[in-house]
Design brief:
Largest sheet: 6 strands, mixed
CATH superfamily of the largest domain: P-loop containing nucleotide triphosphate hydrolases
Radius of gyration: 19 Å
CATH topology of the largest domain: Rossmann fold
Order of helices and strands: EHEHHHEHEHEEH
CATH architecture of the largest domain: 3-Layer(aba) Sandwich
Distance between the termini: 45 Å
Length: 217
């Protein structure tokens, strides 16, 4: 029985730490890094889904977050009901949701599924619905996590076309992605996260080059 009651010690792990970042109005900021580097946690902190254990986060406008699949949705409700539920969570009134309802359904390509329970839809269809609701919110700041990778190619292209419009309209976008081509195409500036810290920051070409070399090391 030696060691049966031995006291175990645990190391504290910080998903994000010692991070200082200012995002300019109208900027399209890419956030890249290996899995577990703190990318999604950073977006959740900005979206106020998580609270920092120390430090402060200042956001000067409304935020529309499109984070991990399932947040804000109820599987036993229909697609239609989830539009009103998720829209309300994002700060839209019932009348605002009604005014955008047809656009959301059309953008998501779910005209035939409005009365289907969400849990019976594929993950890709749920992604299409979540993104469509999020971008329908006229919020100055949009947070987009890697979940777009779940969607089909046609819908990804539709999303990327909408990004072009957002840039022209001066919306601020924080974009987490492993799609380096998309990051280079859209982002004005990119940060590289490593173990919860900013390892590098700069133009998309500069940081992506550093990241590729870092990944191959």
């Amino acid at each position: 029985f030696v060691g049966l009651f031995q006291k175990h010690t645990y190391e504290k792990l910080y998903a994000v730490r010692d991070l200082t970042l200012k995002v300019n109005k109208g900027e399209f900021l890419g956030i890249i890094g290996k899995n577990g580097s703190g990318k999604s946690t950073l977006l959740k902190l900005i979206a106020n889904v998580l609270q920092p254990t120390s430090g402060t986060i200042s956001v000067n406008a409304n935020v529309a977050p499109f984070l991990e699949l399932g947040i804000g949705f109820q599987g036993d409700l229909t697609v239609k009901d989830n539009i009103f539920l998720y829209g309300a969570l994002l700060g839209m009134s019932k009348n605002e949701i009604l005014g955008k309802y047809d656009w959301i359904i059309d953008f998501a390509g779910l005209e035939r599924f409005v009365d289907a329970k969400l849990k019976n839809l594929s993950s890709g269809m749920q992604v299409r619905l979540g993104f469509s609701i999020t971008v329908s919110v006229e919020s100055p700041i949009l947070l987009v996590d890697e979940v777009l990778a779940v969607g089909d190619i046609d819908f990804q292209q539709k999303c990327y076309s909408s990004f072009e419009g957002f840039k022209k309209n001066g919306r601020t976008i924080l974009f987490v992605s492993h799609d380096l081509n998309a990051v280079e195409r859209f982002c004005d500036r990119v940060i590289l996260l490593e173990n919860g810290r900013i390892s590098d920051i700069g133009s998309s070409v500069y940081v992506l080059d550093k990241y590729k070399n870092f990944s191959m090391a």
